[in-house]
C-alpha cells in the first residue's frame, strides 16, 4: 500500500497568521513483542458467495473455508470475523452441513470441530453470515480513516453527480469485517468468489473471471477464481459503473477500470503498465506470476493505492484529464509501486507487520528503478534525494526498520518502512553491485514464492549469492535505528602533499555507524576514485595530491543515507556542479549556493543552474532565486523569459512564469497572454496570475473565459484568486464547485487558501454556509493519524474567518461558524 502523503502547509493565513508546530516524535513504546502469528490451522481455499444490500450497506455471505492443521493436531478453529451476524456454522462432510458448536464475541469466532484433525487432514467449515461494515468501528492508520474493510460509496444514489461503487481495503486486518478468515499476513489461500451484483455494474476480484450468469431478479453472478495462493489481506472486491479499457502483457489480460469520462485517457494514465511488467520481470528474473493484472479507481478511497493480488485499487487522484497529463503523469510512480508489490508482498509476503518493510521498501525502491530505466538517472536520483529528505524530516530516528515493538500495527506504515527501507536497498545495491543485487532478489523470490518471509531470509539470499557475511549490514540498518549525522571537513597538507578528509559522526549517544564510501579526488582535469570504510566516531583519510585538489567529493555516488555538513567553498561547489557526476552533487551545490546568494560565486552557480539539462534542477533553481538582490534579478530576467517561452518541460515553464510575474514588467505581457492558453493547467494558471499583476481587467476577462471550461489545479486556484480579487461573487458556484469536485488530497488542501480568502469577502449567507460546510467536510475526510495535527489548523482557519466576519458586521455568518464548530465538537 502506498500511503497518502500530505505535505500540509501550516502557514495558511487570513488576517492573523496560523502557525502549527509538528508534534515531537516520542520514543518507540517497548510493549508487547510483536511476533508472527502462530499457525495452528492453515487456510487452503476460501469460497465465498456474496450478495450486496445497497439499501442497508450489508453483505450477505456464505463462506466455505478449506483448512488443515499446520503441524500439531487440533480440534478447534479460531477465525477473525468482525462485527458480523453469524447465522450458521457447520462442518461440510458427506455433502451435508453438520452443525458445530462455537462462541462469538463480535471479533473472533471460536469453533469446536467434530474431532481432532492431524496435519495431513483437510476439513471444510461452512459459515452463513451477514457483514455490516458501516456499523463496525475500528481505528485506521495514516493511510485510511478507518478499518471497516468493505466500503459502500453512495449506495442509495442520494448524492448527485457521485457514482455508486463498492470496494474493499484489507490491509492490515480489515477484510475479516466482510469475510470470516484467519486474517494474518502469514496465511496463504486460493479462492473462489461468486459475486452477485446489479447487472448494470461490472465487478472485479482477484484472479480470473471464469463465468457470468444473469439472474431473474436483474442481478448477475460473476465467478472469480484465484488458483494461486495469496494472503487474506489481499482479497479484493470491486463493483461499479466503470469503463474497462483493455490492454495485455504476453497474452495476459491487463485492464484499467476507470470512471467513464476518463476512458479516453486511461491508457495515458496506466498505459506503461505492460512495459513495467516486462521490466520488473526482467530485472528480478521472475516472470509476472499471476493470471492477469487489473487496476481500478475507487471513489473516496484515500489510501493512495493498494496492491490486491491481480487487482490493484487506486484512489481517484489517479484519474487525470488530458490537461493535467500535459504536465506529467503524477500517478506513474504509484502505478510502478503497486505493480512491484505483485512480487514483493503478494508472491512473497512479510510474515508479520514487524517485517512490513520487506513489502514496502521494495515497492518504494521500484519507483527509483522504474524512473532510472525510463527517464534516466537524474530523474531517479531526484526521487531518491526527496525520499531520503522525507525520512529525515519525519524525525523517526528512534524506530528500527524491522520493529518488534510498536503500539499498533498501523504505526508500521511510516517513513521508516517506506522511505528509509528504499534507501537501504539503494545502499545495498551500491555495495554488492547490480549483478549480485538482482540475482539475490531472484533467489529470495524463488526460494520463498507463495510463502511468508522475514528479513533474515532476505539476508540469507544475499549472503548465498555474494559469499559475504552481511550480518553487520542487517544488524545496523534492519535491526537498528537512526542514521549517521556527519561533519565532513576537507583539507590539504602542502608539506606531505596529501589531501585529507575527516569524517566525524555527530549523532547522539554512543552509536557508531560502519559503512563504505567512495571518495573522488579531482585534480588537473583528472578524477581518481578511492573507497574508504568509516567505522569510528572520527576518521581521517589521506590521499596523495601534488597540489590542492579542485574538489574532494566524499560519498561520491551519493547513495549514503545520512545527514551531512561539509566545509566546501563556493569555488569548490561551483566546480562540483560543473564536473561531478550525479544529480545530488549538483543539488547539494545549489542548496549551498541558495543560502548565500550575496556571494558572487553562489550567484553564478544559481544562474548556471537555470540552464541545467535536467528539468527538476532548473525548476528548483528558478524557485530558489533571490530576486530581492538586484544583481541576480537583472541577470535572471532574460533567462526566465526565455524559459517561460521556450522550455519543453511544462512544469519548468510554469515555474519561470511564476517568478517572471514578480518583475511586474509590461514588456512580458505577450508571454503571459500566450501562456494563458497553454494546454497545461499549471502553465495557464501561473500565466493568469502573472497577467493579473500586469492587467487586472484583462485577467478577469480571461478568468471568466477560462472558467467556461473544466479548470483544475493551479488554473482553478488562479481563476478563483482573480475573481476574488475582483470581488466577483457571481462566480461562487464555480469556485465552490471546483473545490467540491477535487478528490481529497494535497491539491484540495492547497485550494483552501483561495477558498478562505473568497469566504471572507462573500456577502451571501447561503454561499457562505456552503463554503464553510466544504471546509468542515474536508476536515471529516482527514485520516485519523493526521487529524491531531490538521484539525486545529482547520478550526483556526474557521475561527479567523469568524473573527473577520464579526469585525465587518456580518454576525450572521460568524454565528454560523460558531454553531457549526459546536455541533461538530
Task: Provide an overview of this structure.
- The protein has 825 residues and is α+β, with helices and mostly antiparallel strands.
- It contains 26 helices and 33 strands.
- The strands form 9 sheets. The protein has an 8-stranded mixed sheet with strand order 7-6-10-4-3-15-18-17, with no helix packed on it. Strands 20-21-22-24-23 form a 5-stranded mixed sheet.
- A hairpin with a 2-residue loop joins β29 and β30.
- The protein is globular, with a radius of gyration of 29 Å.
- 45% of the residues are buried.
- The model is unreliable at 8-28 (pLDDT under 50).
Give the structure's gist in a few sentences.
With 825 residues, this protein is an alpha+beta fold. It is 38% helix and 25% strand. The two termini are 32 Å apart.
Show the helix and strand layout.
Layout: E1 13-14, E2 16-17, E3 41-53, E4 58-69, E5 74-80, E6 84-93, E7 96-99, E8 101-104, E9 108-117, E10 123-131, E11 139-141, E12 144-146, E13 150-153, E14 165-168, E15 189-198, E16 202-205, E17 208-214, E18 219-230, E19 237-240, E20 243-249, E21 252-258, H1 266-270, H2 273-284, E22 292-298, E23 305-306, E24 311-315, H3 322-325, H4 332-341, E25 348-350, H5 357-375, H6 377-393, H7 416-432, H8 434-448, E26 451-453, H9 455-466, H10 471-478, E27 485-493, E28 498-505, E29 515-523, E30 526-534, E31 538-544, E32 551-554, E33 563-566, H11 570-579, H12 583-594, H13 600-609, H14 615-624, H15 630-646, H16 650-660, H17 669-675, H18 681-694, H19 696-706, H20 713-725, H21 732-741, H22 746-750, H23 752-761, H24 765-781, H25 784-807, H26 811-824
Parallel strand pairs: 3-15, 21-22, 22-24, 25-26, 27-33
Antiparallel strand pairs: 1-2, 3-4, 4-10, 5-9, 6-7, 6-10, 8-9, 11-12, 13-14, 14-19, 15-18, 16-19, 17-18, 20-21, 23-24, 27-28, 28-31, 29-30, 29-32
Helix pairs in contact: 2-4, 4-5, 5-6, 5-7, 6-7, 7-8, 8-9, 11-12, 11-13, 12-13, 14-16, 15-16, 16-18, 17-18, 18-19, 18-20, 19-20, 20-23, 21-24, 23-24, 24-25, 24-26, 25-26
